[in-house]
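Onboarding guide, step 5: your first structure request.
Type a short instruction followed by the sequence, for example:

Predict the 3D structure of this protein.
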Amino acid sequence: MKPLQFTIPVATDRSVLVQEDRIPQFYPYLHRHKEAQLIWIIRGNGTLIVDSHFHDFSENDIFLIAPQQSHVFRGQTADREEVHTLSVFYDPEGTLNALLNLPELRPFHSFIKEYPGGFRVPGRHTSFIAKRMLKIQKANPADQIIHLLHLLRAFCKMDPKPD
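The system replies with structure tokens like these:
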């Protein structure tokens, strides 16, 4: 199955987009986008298909989906139960590229390159990462960049291997 190239509705004056969805079901099509997506499943469960891998997911799982990585969330929610997610989108090769290539921030860029297939945030880190995502969501645009850098620093320090 060929993935759809999806364009995230990003404001031209932003490098980070936060999107909270409360919807009847997950977007049903295999797709990809140029932005990395950090997605927190607040409510919902099912199977994530990413490239040729299958991952069961449930509430409070967090995934980092790499740029241009084909993926689809296949939900298994009960009738009338909505899906609730919080996503942070950013393009490490776009407007953030110059920032991430500063000598002091190269470890962040190296981390992104080290995991071209993305990963599931290990359970022992989900609470901390979820709190960071909420800080990004509530912040003004300039502070969103600062909070994203804190998040990337946390990723660099964590071992993304499963619990």
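Each response can be followed by summary notes, for example: Residues 132 and 150 are 8 Å apart (CA to CA).
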